[in-house]
Design brief:
Elements lengths: L5 E4 L4 E4 L2 E3 L4 E4 L1 H6 L4 E2 L2 E4 L4 E4 L8 E3 L4 E3 L3 E6 L5 H10 L1 H6 L11 H6 L1 E4 L2 H24 L1
């Protein structure tokens, strides 16, 4: 690792939290199905989250998948709020989580309903460059993803 980088466990960069309990009227229920299809059911109460909140799936087959809420609503029961410390480039951290998504899926815990292995999640070691470099790395990843999508679309 370059000398101006550090390595920290993901548990020191991210926390898994809950929305704020609320019974303040009907709001969309933000579960995996509705976040994928944008076809929301309404609930009268739940754990409120604002638009732009990152939710991570912690129960089920695709544990470790991260969604950004497009609207205000109530957090799905299989989700946790993913809070990333403010001194990190959020997209840099999300790219790291995405890199390990298959490992997180393949190392779930629980027998009846598979759950995100939170211990493994917290212990993944994230190499951390200076903030400006995090931005450059994120831009490069985005450019290569766009290029790969373009190539895939033309096949």
């Amino acid at each position: 690792m370059p000398p101006n980088w550090v390595a920290l466990p993901l548990g020191e960069i991210c926390t898994l939290a809950e929305g704020s309990p609320s019974n303040n009227g009907q709001k969309p229920y933000l579960d995996v199905k509705s976040l994928r299809t944008e076809n929301y059911t309404m609930k009268d109460a739940g754990k409120f989250v604002k638009a732009g909140t990152m939710l991570i799936l912690v129960d089920g087959e695709n544990s470790g998948e991260v969604f950004t809420t497009p609207i205000d609503g109530y957090q799905g029961s299989t989700m946790k709020v993913l809070v990333i410390v403010p001194y990190m480039n959020k997209q840099y951290v999300l790219n790291f989580i995405k890199l390990y998504q298959n490992a997180l899926r393949n190392n779930k815990v629980g027998s009846a309903i598979p759950h995100l292995n939170k211990k493994m999640f917290r212990e993944l070691v994230l190499p951390i460059p200076p903030l400006q470099e995090q931005g450059r790395i994120t831009q490069a990843i985005e450019q290569y993803e766009n290029l790969l999508n373009s190539i895939s679309g033309s096949l």
